[in-house]
UniProtKB/TrEMBL annotation:
Residues 6-115 form the HIT domain. Pfam families: HIT. It comes from Laceyella tengchongensis. PANTHER family: HISTIDINE TRIAD HIT PROTEIN (PTHR23089). One of its GO terms (molecular function) is catalytic activity. The active site is at H101. This is Histidine triad (HIT) family protein. A motif (Histidine triad motif) lies at residues 99-103.
Length: 115
């Protein structure tokens, strides 16, 4: 775990979160600054800084993350009408926390571009 990483601190229980899903490899919790009625972050428990740092041995972990996204979207009632999954990469991509995470956003009609 990275000492300065806020998501690693959430995984360790040092910072509280409103969890919606947890297993051995993945944690999902409500975003503290939601952009829609439902806005959950899905993260691996192991620190990976960004999508660009995914290694071949991480492919199984990515499958577990997307399986968790399916579970979360069903449990939160998003699966039937739809939702958006967003991953920001790097400074220009809007990544502010350097621990790979996926935003699961829904609960209303979403527009493009986001706004």
């Amino acid at each position: 775990m990275m000492e300065q990483c806020i998501f690693c601190q959430i995984v360790e229980g040092k910072i509280p979160s409103k969890k919606v899903y947890e297993d051995e490899h993945v944690l999902a919790f409500h975003d503290i600054s939601p952009v829609a009625p439902t806005h959950v972050l899905v993260i691996p428990k192991r620190h990976i800084a960004s999508l660009m740092e995914i290694a071949p041995e991480d492919h199984v972990l990515l499958g577990k993350i997307f399986s968790a996204i399916q579970t979360v979207s069903r449990e939160l009632g998003l699966a039937e009408k739809g939702f958006r999954v967003v991953n920001n990469i790097g400074e220009d991509g809007g990544q502010t926390v350097h621990h790979i995470h996926f935003h699961v956003i829904g609960g209303r009609t979403l527009t493009w571009p986001p706004g």
